[in-house]
Amino acid sequence: MAITEALDFETDEIVFEFAEHDGFPRKALERAIANRDAVTPDFLERIEAYLNGPGLDGADEDALFFIVHLLAQFREKRAYRLLMRLFSLDSARLHRILGEAKTETLSRIAISVFDGDPGPMQEVIEDKDADEFVRSGLFQALAFLVKEGRVDLEDFKKYLLRAYAELRPQGESHVWVGWQSAISLLGLTEFSDLVRKAFASGRIHPGNMRYRHFQKDVQAAVRDPESYKDSAWVPLGYFDDTIGEMESWAAFSDEPSDRLEREPWEPAISEFLTDEPHVNPIRDVGRNDPCPCGSGRKFKKCCLQ
Question: Smaller CB count within 10 Å for the chain: N or C?
Fold first, then answer.
């Protein structure tokens, strides 16, 4: 067997284990990491084939979940534009691939594969049909890259202003949570009046957060411009460790979860949602979103526990 054939076979075997895993595919991930240079071209080709083809079955979409995260861990810039195309897929299709990672790791994936051009991220943000949580997360990713000196601050400030006027929808959407988060993370107090108008016009649901939370966040960024490196309120940074981070995820654990039985969030959010009893109060709340109880903490660190 030729060397190239052997490498292809090894990659196919790894991807098969990703797709058909029973539990967490640690050994397959370890082999992929150890053979980074060999598997990366194949991983890129598989994403492109998925985007250009008729789609994959559920098992193959499961494999893409690990492929995407490994490419982020590898800081593979060639994946950037492919992943922005992937992130622009409709919510249901993207959820089949990323699941909880859509709010847990997506921002860090984008940061890790960024190739220096904010344009592809902005295209997803501006796509009204893209998932609102993805659009929100990419706003936050761009803000992080500004703080890192990899995106120009003045250009991004102009983009934030243009987004306020042109971004769709102009009504309530989670994309506006990301917009205001980018402003607060950068400590842009000069945008405060504009953010206040966004809250007042209903673009940000009070169940997600309120204007006073923005004020607290932006002032914290002003006091400590380096706080973005250790931010507890938004999942930012580089994605570095697929195995270490994901092995403990509930999705890969055999341990039963009692979260639905306990429902500790219910009394905490009932008070300010009593005028909308027909709406599931946590239907749009991600683990890393501000807790609906108004504490200002992440949902996963507050009423979700």
Answer: N
